[in-house]
Amino acid sequence: MNENEAVLVTYGLQRAYGSCMALDGASMMVRRGDVYGLVGRNGAGKTTLMRMVTGQSEPSGGEMELFGASGKDMRLQRSRTGAMIETPSFAPFLSARENLEYYRLQRGIPGKGVVDEVLEQVDLTGAGKKKFKSFSLGMKQRLGLALALMNHPDLLILDEPINGLDPEGVAEFRQILRTLNQERQTTILISSHILSELSNVATRYGFMEKGKLLEEISAATLHDKCRTCLRLEVDDPAKAAAVLQSVLGTDRFEVLPGGIIQLYDYLDDPKQASYALTQNGVALLAMEQKGADLEAYFLSLIGGGRDA
């Protein structure tokens, strides 16, 4: 692909804390327009990686490019990012508008109108005068997002933003992210343990484990890998493929090594598929229905375990 489309690229990033490698050669690419879902268990290195992108932590090794800039030149490009890595500290007895105005002045962001603009973006216009101490968790998270949006970032970095939210809060946050990405063309790097929710917004994934980036994959490719199929083990894959095409009239299958065929048709009537094969001289050694969701795919990638 054209490197000009890359918003963030890391090359073998490392971060050591004593003898512990929080990041161990992590290489990734976030493209312009992505909603990049960073998937990993606690301690996998997600937050460490995000801190490096925002300049809160320095790498022990490796390189990084942000909007095509590297080294000291990245400082200027970081002004094009917004981040919510930890919930910001807001004054409990100030309103949402007053809290944002404080940060606007502190950060030297021009134009008072930006406060009302970001409150509208995160659907907190009606709560602008409400004191922060009275906010629900979902409202607090949205106010933190509003703060991250005040400089109109091209890249938005969010670490576990929906953690602890109730289903309504998750749905509201998800819709805001979709609007930012689709209508404002904001590129988003987001981590979450709620993998089913990532699957509702992400266009691309990076799977992390023990400081390494194990795989990057598009949402479309992941969907293909996870979709339900009939897994057929046969003695003659070439003959079986011919039977599926000529007798059952389907091309919706893949021939894999080891005499395996994954059939994406006849899921509601597997007996018809098995009958067609056996009646036409193909020995069907095994047949099972398989499928996986995002969590199952991740667990298979890292070799099992929990706390994903």
Unreliable residue stretches: none
Mean pLDDT over all positions: 89
- By DSSP (H or I, 4+ residues per run), the number of helices equals 11
Tally of DSSP β-strands? 14
Shape: elongated
Strand coverage percent? 25-35%
Mind telling me the CATH superfamily name of the largest domain? P-loop containing nucleotide triphosphate hydrolases
Helices and strands, in order, run as EEEHEEHEHHHEHEHEEHEHEEHEH
CATH fold topology of the largest domain: Rossmann fold
CATH class of the largest domain: Alpha Beta
Can you summarize the main beta sheet? 6 strands, mixed
What is the count of structural domains?
A: 2
CATH architecture verdict of the largest domain: 3-Layer(aba) Sandwich
How large is the radius of gyration? 24 Å
What do you see in this structure?
This protein is of the alpha/beta class and 308 residues long. It has 2 domains: 221 residues, P-loop containing nucleotide triphosphate hydrolases (Rossmann fold); 63 residues, Alpha-Beta Plaits, CATH 3.30.70. 35% of the residues lie in helices and 28% in strands. The protein contains 11 helices and 14 strands. The chain has a 6-stranded mixed beta sheet, sandwiched between helices. The protein has a 4-stranded antiparallel beta sheet with strand order 2-1-4-5, covered by helices on one side. A hairpin with a 2-residue loop joins β4 and β5. α4 packs across α5.
